[in-house]
Amino acid sequence: MGSLFRSEEMTLAQLFLQSEAAYACVRELGELGKVQFRDLNPDVSAFQRKFVSEVRRCDEMERKLRYLGHKLEKAGIDVRPGGNIEAPDPQDMIDLESKFEVLEGEVKEMNSNKEALKRNLLDLIELQHILGKTQVFFQEA
Predict the structure, then answer these.
(1) 90-140 and 52-74 helices cross at what angle (nearest 10)?
(2) How many whole angstroms separate alpha carbon 81 and alpha carbon 69?
(3) Which of 22, 113, 126, 130 is deepest in the core (most CB within 10 A)?
(4) CA-based diameter of the chain, in Å?
């Protein structure tokens, strides 16, 4: 067991993985929490890397989750943290992405319906007051 003030012994290793198996291997290593990755191409920008589309998809899913979480908090619904969740498989990521898209669309539609109902309610209340005032006016005349 390592000391609190000294780092544990480390070994530098280089892995060569087939692209088909890379995701599963990196996921397993990441879940162990015992690996640190070094960027061997620091001069390459983030937009020139192979995985930039996956990172953008993950960022978009994170944005949707934040939006849904904000709406849940605004509605007073308690959201409990899920704890440590394993990294999903690529197929599961596609399923999650489509579920988040559907949920976000439904929440946006509910919000627009809510706003429309509020406007209708205010219009009806205004008409009710107008009818009340005109009724009083005609009764006095």
Answers:
(1) 40
(2) 11
(3) 22
(4) 97
